[in-house]
Amino acid sequence: MNHLPLIIKREYLTKVRNKSFIIMTFLSPIIMIALFSLIGYLTSVNNETVRTIYVLDETGFLSESFKSTEQTIYTKVSEVDLETAKTLANQENAYGLLHIPNQPIETVSSVVKFYSEESPSLSIISSLESTLENKLSELKLQNNGVDLALIEASKTTIDINQESFEGVKTSKVGSVMKLIFGGAAGYLLFMFIIIYGNMIMRSVIEEKTSRIIEVIISSVKPIQLMLGKIIGTSLAGITQFAIWIVLGLVFFIASMSIFGVEMSQTQTPQQALVSEALSNTDSPDKIQMIFNEFSTLPLGNLVIAFILFFICGYLLYSSLYAAIGAAVDNETDTQQFMLPVIMPLILAVYVGMFTVIEDPHGTISTVFSFIPFTSPVVMLMRIPFGVPIWQQIISLLILIGTFIGIVWFAAKIYRVGILMYGKKPTYKELFKWLKY
Q1: Distant-in-sequence, close-in-space partners of 200: CB < 8 Å, separation ≥ 6
Q2: How far apart are CA 238 and CA 245, in angstroms?
Q3: 170: enclosing H helix or E strand
Q4: Helix segments in 352-388, DSSP class H
Q5: pLDDT, average across residues 305-329
Q6: Which stretches within 284-426 are classed as H helix?
Q7: Helices (H), strands (E): how many in the chain?
Q8: In which region does residue 345 sit, left (phi positive, over 0), alpha (psi from -120 to 50) or beta (all else)?
Q9: Which of 2, 188, 385, 426 could be a cystine partner for 360, CB 3.0 to 4.6 Å?
Q10: CA atoms lying within 13 Å on the CB side of residue 323
Q11: Which is it for the CA torsion 128, 131, 137, 142, positive or negative?
C-alpha cells in the first residue's frame, strides 16, 4: 500500500500546527520590518547630524574650495597658529580641524593633516581629499598655462546604445533588471534550501531519538517515509513563505506610512549602485524604456524555469539533509557531514554573483550551470540574460537524473541510519551502508 500521501499530510499538519512554527510565521515579518525601520530611523538620525569642521589654510588659496552643506559646516580660521586653532576647535566641540601648511603647490598635498578628538568618518576624509585633489589639480594646470574652460568644455558623456545581431535593443537598465531577477531567484533558492533543509534534518533526528521511527518503519518503506518528510516539510515551508510575503508587504507599507521610513535611507552601497544605474540616463522617456526592457525579459521562461529548477534543486539537497539526519543521533554530530552539502551551494552563489553577472555566457558560467549541485542557482541567474532552451533542458535532465540517484543513495543511508543508535558514523561506515 502506498502510504506516501498519508505521510505528506502528517508531516505538513505536524509542522503547521507546531506552536513555534505558528509564532515564527507571524513574528518573523514583524522582526524584519522592525529591523529595517530601525535601520532607516538610525540612518536618518545620522544624516541629520551636523558636523562643524575648522579649516586652517596657511596657503590662502585652498580654503575657498570647501563649501558648507546641510550636514557639514566649514569654519575658516586665519591669523592664528596651529595650537591656537586646535584649542579653538576643541572648545567649540568641532568635529575636527583641517590644517593646510604654507607649502608650495607641488608639496602641500603630502603635509595636510586632520585633527579630531575621535577617529573621523571615512566618508568625511574622502570628501576632504577629493576637494583638495581637484583644487590642486586645477591650480597646477593653470600654472602650466592650461585653459580650464577649454578642459571643461571638452568633457563628453557617452551612453552607448546596445543591440544584438538580430536587432534586439538592450541597455544598461535592462542589464540591471536581469541582474536583479537572476540574483533574487538564485538567492531565494539558496535561503530556502538552508532554512527548510535544516528543518527536515531536525525532524528526522527528533523522530529517531524519540524511537517513534521504530514504530513507523514497521509499516512504511524507508524511501516513502523520507520522501513524505521532504515533500510535507516543503509544502509547510511554501505555506510559511507565502504568509511571510503577504504579511511582509502589509507591515512594510504600514511602517512606511506610520514612521515615515524611506527606502533610500536603508540602501546598501550595492543597492545604491543599482539605483544609480537605473537613474543614470539622458533619455526623456526613461520610464517607458524601463517598461520596454521589462517586456523584453523572457518572463514565461523565467517563471517555468524558476519553478522546475527550484523544486528539483530543493528536493536534491533535501534528500541529503534527510540522509544526514538519519545517520546521526543529534545536531552536534551533523557538522562533519554539513560541509560537503553547504560548499556546492556557497560555490554556486559565488559563481553566480561574480562570474555570471560579468560573463553570463562564459565557459565558467556555462559549465557550472550544468553541474547538478550548482545548476539550480547558476542557471536561474543565467536565464534572464538569454540561455538557449536546449541548454536549460539538458541542465534540468541532468539535475533530475542526479536527484533520482541521490534519492536512492539517501534512502540507503536512511534505511540503515534511522535504526542505528549510540554511535557516531564515519564516511567509511556510510559507504558500507550503501551495500546493505
Answers
A1: 229, 230, 233, 318, 321, 322, 325
A2: 11
A3: strand 169-170
A4: 363-368, 375-382
A5: 82
A6: 286-296, 299-327, 335-351, 363-368, 375-382, 389-417
A7: 16, 6
A8: alpha
A9: 385
A10: 23
A11: negative
pTM for this prediction: 0.65
C-alpha–C-alpha distance, residues 166 and 168, integer Å: 6
Residue 155 pLDDT > 70, yes or no? yes
Cα 34 to Cα 127, 225, 249, 251: the distances in Å are 32, 39, 13, 9
Q: How far apart are the first and last CA of the chain?
A: 24
Backbone angles phi, psi at 374, to 5 degrees: -120, -15
**Selection from 293, 241, 207, 180 nearest residue 16 by Cα:** 241
Q: Is 50 left (phi over 0), alpha (psi -120 to 50) or beta?
A: beta
In sequence order, which residues have a C-beta less than 8 Å from that of residue 284 and are 6 or more positions away?
none
| Per-residue pLDDT tens digits for 34-67 | 787 777 777 666 666 778 888 888 887 787 888 8
Q: Which domains does the chain have, with CATH numbers?
A: 4-32+171-433 (no CATH), 50-144 (3.40.190.10)
Residues 174 and 297: their CA atoms lie apart, in Å, by 8
Q: Mutual orientation of helices 375-382 and 172-209 as an angle, nearest 10°?
A: 160
The residue length of the chain stands at 436
List residues bridging with 75 in a β-sheet.
54
Which residue bears the cell 530611523?
41
Q: What is the DSSP letter of 356?
A: I
The Cβ of residue 180 has, within 10 Å, a number of other Cβ atoms equal to: 13
Torsions phi, psi of 75, nearest 5? -110, 115
The Cα–Cα gap between 372 and 360 comes to: 18
Do 278 and 290 contact (CB within 8 A), yes or no? yes
How many C-alpha atoms does 328 have within 13 Å on its Cβ side? 19
Taking residues 367-390, what's their average pLDDT?
86
Q: Name which of 189, 177, 402 is nearest 306 in CA terms.
A: 189
Single out the residue of 105, 112, 8, 95 nearest to residue 53, CA to CA.
95
Look up residue 311 and give its amino acid.
I
Identity of the residue numbered 322: A
**Sole residue written with cell 523522530:** 207
Instruction: Yes or no: say if 56 and 113 are a contact pair by the CB < 8 Å rule.
Output: no
Q: How many CB atoms lie within 10 A of CB 78?
A: 11
